[in-house]
Amino acid sequence: MAQIFPAELPEGVHTTRSERAIFEALKAGLPDDFYVYYALPFVSGETAAQGEVDFIILHPELGMLFLECKGGGIERDHDGTWYRMKGKKREKLSRTPAEQAKSQVEALVTKFRGSCVRLFGSISGRFPMVYGWAIAFPLSVWESHNIPPDMEPEIFLDAAVLEDTHRLVVDAMSFWARKHETPPTLSADQFETFRTNVLSPEIKLVPLLDRVLPSGAHPMVRLTDKQAAVAERISASKRLMINGSGGTGKTLLAFHSAQMMANEDKRVLLLCHDPALAEKFSLVTTQLARQVQVAHEATQTLTLDSSSTLAFKRPSEDERTIAIGKVSDEPATQAIDSVDETTVRFAKPDLKLKSRRWSVQLPGTIETIDYPRLVFRAAMLLNESPPPQERSAHTLKAALTQDLIGPWDAIVVDQGESLSPAALEVLESALTPGGQLVVFYDPDKASGRQYMPRIGPEIPLI
Predict the structure, then answer these.
(1) Strands 82-86 and 74-76
(2) Residue 56 has what pLDDT?
(3) Is the confidence at residue 34, as pLDDT, over 70?
(4) How many CB atoms lie within 10 A of CB 432?
């Protein structure tokens, strides 16, 4: 069965009898390596014209087919004029079915081309997959010799498509491969990227960041094409360095990257050097964390990591214990009297309560803090005095080793030029297995350093 979007015809939306017939035929008649998109609307960037494609059929090897669906009552005179019958009235069509299908294909392929170049690099002037169109008349039959000269049997489908769906769709898609000596193809990963990032992308809005950007900077409310391309690299990378001079959008992209990671239910540390910037970050991320906290309270579960999920119960005024424990085990208890009034922290792996001024970070949240404050927190939890700058990395390492801070599933560093190589090394050790580390830095401000450590591939922001 094909993977079709939407999975069912939407209620309350007008669909023709012919569209319903094709929808069910494609859904049931194609195997699961076919993807079908129904009623995909679009706007032409060049002419601002609005359109809608009845069906787009996508296959990793055969390419993309735009299928235009027509009902009964369509006629063509010997002079090439097409008509639609409305009752007993004959209405002339402004464009032939082939012209209509071709214009939709050209408009959408033009719209997709820029994204393909951005995602896959140069495409040598041609689209990176085979594409074409076909017209289906599922409520009609005809003789093959009556097909007009601007069509061919493979792309002029009658009611047979309802019974022999797979073969006829493959024939139509294969027809358009004939115009290529070597048909263009995408790799499996590129195909999935095209399907989910170009044809029908998921949209995640970026909050207004006028409160987050440094004072005096103009607020940016959307990612540029360059920033969007870098964001896609970030989501697929475990280690990445991004350099850019002032005004290239590093802060915006750092915040957006942290959001992307939190949306994947990761515990994210968003770290910078300037306390004022960290405070501006927290204005937004605190609200996000509050929303996640409410969600976890509603389910009464707390996930510490992939292997430690706890059931917990908040005590009433009459209760004297806090119940904790693995979901499948009998809960352990500890008297409330032995726990101070500050936020408690569940320690791993023995799952006992510790009286620490530190709370468990929930999955899907972002902790924002500046580096000096993180070091101060580590020293406090170690019952030590704040260390001098040259000992800051050592203090962080000790707190990590004793499980007093971290670990995090992802760490995003803004103003990375302010951190020492030793500090960056400690941050890498603060990640959970498979965690992500992304460092943004200004090469102009880092020029006075002996060197900037390389934690992974580097991308310039221009």
Answers:
(1) antiparallel
(2) 94
(3) yes
(4) 15
